[in-house]
Amino acid sequence: MCLKAVSLFFVFFSSVKFTSACNGYNLKVDYIKPCTADSVVIPKNMDFAFDSKCNLVLSGCVEMTKTLKTSKATYELTKSPMPTMTGDVDLCSLFGNKKKLFVTKQVFEAYGLPKSCPVPAKKYCVNGKQLISIDSYKNKLGMALGSVVTKLNVDHEDAGKTCVDIKMTVSKKK
User: What number is the average pLDDT over the span 72-77?
Assistant: First the structure.
């Protein structure tokens, strides 16, 4: 479940950034890029960093090019040597389950995204001062050491599709 949350969380972050502060772990987002030129959801100058208290500091924007009435996502997460994880999640009903993907919900809230669909077509931004605690995950970050590759496909039915490829690298300061 931790890796599911992490993978969905990184869908909306799109810069190459090296950070070091959370329990000695470093994170480098190698890329986050659309799989298709006509993705409905487009990250804009999005960035994140860990602070010394294991908070995630967010900045940037995400643009919805069309109003989203549905957002049914499938994902594939690859982290060697573990088996590939696959699954699906209805992003429109995410807030209906209090325990499911808690950090992802906090990221959506930080960007000002509605808690249910429809999601109006517009740019949603965060000011960089939003803190999301990942303290409860800091002792599990070792599971993510190495490269983590995620592919996310989201079907918005009448509005189109979103596809994102993500690669990040987690390392431990020695």
Answer: 94
CA distances for 147 relative to 18, 43, 81, angstroms: 14, 21, 10
Note the pLDDT tens digit of each residue in 150-166.
999 999 998 999 998 88
CA distance 35 to 51: 31
| CB within 8 Å of 82: residues ≥ 6 apart | none
pTM for the structure as a whole: 0.77
Q: For the chain, how many structural domains are there in total?
A: 1
CA-based end-to-end distance of the chain = 28
Can you give the length of the chain in residues? Answer: 174
Beta strands in 38-155 (DSSP E): 41-50, 55-64, 72-78, 85-90, 123-133, 146-155
C-beta neighbour count of 118 within 10 angstroms: 14
Give the position of tokens 């499938």.
74
Residue type (1 letter), 25: Y
Range of the domain at 7: 2-172
CATH code for position 148: 2.70.220.10
